[in-house]
């Protein structure tokens, strides 16, 4: 996942709204969002190579999502899978505070990551490339790409502004997917320096990423109404940015999951 924009307790009817793009190599197998057979309370996509996920929600109002922290040339191939950070929270029972405390203690076991975890009461953020302690988010709008939360990369600044305007139109989903489909490349003068070649900095500067073998694989809109109804819409894309599938799931969530 390389872009997440979310509103936490910032809309009178929707306490949680998330718009996100997952960028990945097209050769890496993945399954679209679905309720997991072994954990039927969890709705999420699935990385079929390592078994984790990048974004998901549960019937018990648990939410988690992550992005990788981009630092060219500093990846440890023996590190633990970052997708497990989301999957383990969604399938577990630990409170967000207890979970992030455990993750912060084991942060060195992973390559660079940013992680959101929360429930209906709180939303936390932690990066193993940032502060040692989790950050608990106040009501507001937040953005995350492949650096620390709210780092003002151009694509994140524009996405947050468009996201803020789209909130007033809920439950309409079209403005959010228009946001996530933006393929504008940022001028070189405004590109960050993250240790990857300039050509890749250009490609990765777009909200919707396109290249021959890597790009935006899925766009997701997640919203939770104050009455507990949760809606997740996910669109999948091929290397030519064509939609290859769409998932739309709605369910009534509660603090106590029945597991059905």
Short description:
With 260 residues, this protein is α+β, with helices and mostly antiparallel strands. Helix content is 18%, strand content 33%.
Please give a handful of descriptors for the protein shown:
260 residues, single chain, 13 strands, Penicillin V Acylase, Chain A, alpha+beta, NRDE family protein, six-stranded antiparallel β-sheet, disordered C terminus, seven-stranded antiparallel β-sheet
| Helical/strand content category | alpha+beta
Report the C-alpha radius of gyration, rounded: 17 Å
Calculate the terminal CA-CA distance, rounded to whole Å: 28 Å
How many individual helices? 5
CATH homologous superfamily grouping: Penicillin V Acylase, Chain A
Describe the protein in words:
The chain contains 5 helices and 13 strands. Strands 3-4-5-6-7-8-9 form a 7-stranded antiparallel β-sheet, covered by helices on one side. The protein has a 6-stranded antiparallel β-sheet with strand order 10-1-2-11-12-13, covered by helices on one side. The protein has one domain: Penicillin V Acylase, Chain A, CATH 3.60.60.10. A hairpin with a 5-residue loop joins strand 12 (229-237) and strand 13 (243-252). The chain is of the alpha+beta class and 260 residues long.
Set out the fold topology:
Elements: E1 3-8, E2 16-25, E3 30-35, E4 42-47, E5 55-58, E6 63-68, H1 83-91, H2 96-105, E7 113-118, E8 123-127, E9 135-136, E10 140-144, H3 154-167, H4 174-180, H5 198-204, E11 214-224, E12 229-237, E13 243-252
Antiparallel strand pairs: 1-2, 1-10, 2-11, 3-4, 4-5, 5-6, 6-7, 7-8, 8-9, 11-12, 12-13
Helix pairs in contact: 3-4
């Amino acid at each position: 996942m390389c872009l997440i924009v979310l509103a936490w307790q910032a809309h009178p009817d929707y306490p949680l709204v998330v718009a996100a793009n997952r960028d990945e190599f097209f050769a890496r197998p993945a399954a679209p969002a679905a309720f997991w057979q072994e954990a039927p309370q969890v709705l999420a996509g699935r990385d079929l190579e390592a078994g984790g996920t990048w974004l998901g929600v549960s019937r018990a109002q648990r939410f988690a999502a992550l992005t990788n922290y981009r630092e060219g040339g500093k990846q440890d191939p023996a590190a633990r899978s970052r997708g497990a950070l989301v999957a383990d929270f969604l399938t577990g029972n630990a409170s967000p505070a207890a979970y992030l405390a455990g993750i912060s203690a084991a942060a060195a076991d992973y390559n660079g990551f940013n992680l959101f975890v929360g429930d209906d009461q709180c939303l936390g953020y932690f990066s193993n490339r940032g502060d040692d302690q989790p950050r608990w988010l106040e009501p507001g709008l937040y953005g995350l790409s492949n650096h620390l939360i709210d780092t003002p990369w151009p694509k994140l600044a524009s996405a947050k502004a468009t996201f803020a305007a789209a909130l007033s139109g809920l439950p309409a989903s079209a403005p959010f997917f228009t946001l996530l489909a933006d393929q504008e490349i940022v001028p070189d003068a405004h590109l960050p320096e993250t240790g990857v070649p300039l050509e890749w900095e250009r490609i990765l500067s777009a909200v919707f990423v396109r290249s021959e073998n890597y790009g935006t694989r899925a766009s997701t809109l997640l919203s939770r109404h104050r009455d507990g109804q949760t809606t997740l819409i996910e669109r999948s894309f091929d290397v030519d940015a064509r939609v290859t599938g769409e998932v739309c799931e709605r369910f009534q969530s509660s603090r106590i999951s029945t597991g059905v």
